[in-house]
Amino acid sequence: MKNLLLAAVAAGCMTPAEAQDAREVRLPAPDMSRGTTVMQALAGRVSTRECSPEALSLADLSDVLWAANGVNRPEEGRRTAPSALNRQDIDVYLFTAEGVYLYVPSRHSLRLVVDGDRREVLAGPPSPARAQDFVKAFPAVLLFVSDLSRFEMEGERVRLMAAMDAGIVSQNVSLFCSSVGLCTVPRASMDEAAVRALLGLSVHEVPLLNNPVGYPRK
Description:
By secondary structure, the chain is of the alpha+beta class. It has helices at about 1-10, 15-20, 40-45, 60-70, 155-180, 190-200, and strands at about 25, 70-75, 80, 90-95, 100-105, 110-115, 140-145, 185, 205-215. The chain is globular, with a radius of gyration of 17 Å. About 40% of the residues are buried.
């Protein structure tokens, strides 16, 4: 939390007094001018499981979170990612070495949920192989959780819509990363029981996908 707060102060997003006791980090405004064309981003999209250990800058965190599911029409509260029935069921959690944060689109900010490095729960259930341990080397991992209660209906169709919405948010991240030269890979693997316990999720909240994000290895 400390490093993100210091970065927010350095970027002019918060004053030192605001940062002293804050559990919410305001992000800089997303940079709408960066990146390639959509067609170039599609042509260059690739799943990458290796990255530099360098932490993402506050500007890059701001841009990738906004691209994932930020508010792009403030007057209506609409998002960069469409959702079934406009229920906006997907919550984005950010896992870093410092802690776990909930992205708050309406404020374009991060709210601290849990202190400490908890990326291991996204590497997958414990196993002798632990083939997914590469996730813990990524400086940031975005987890997409659907709150099914926002649909105000039940049934298998609701879960299909939630999975679709998570996939759209994940693709937003993949295309943004391709456009600006960041590394990512969409994943469904995680230790779901551990994720639920860590975040205190209700029975209606379903962790579906995650995207590790980092800089290319030099």
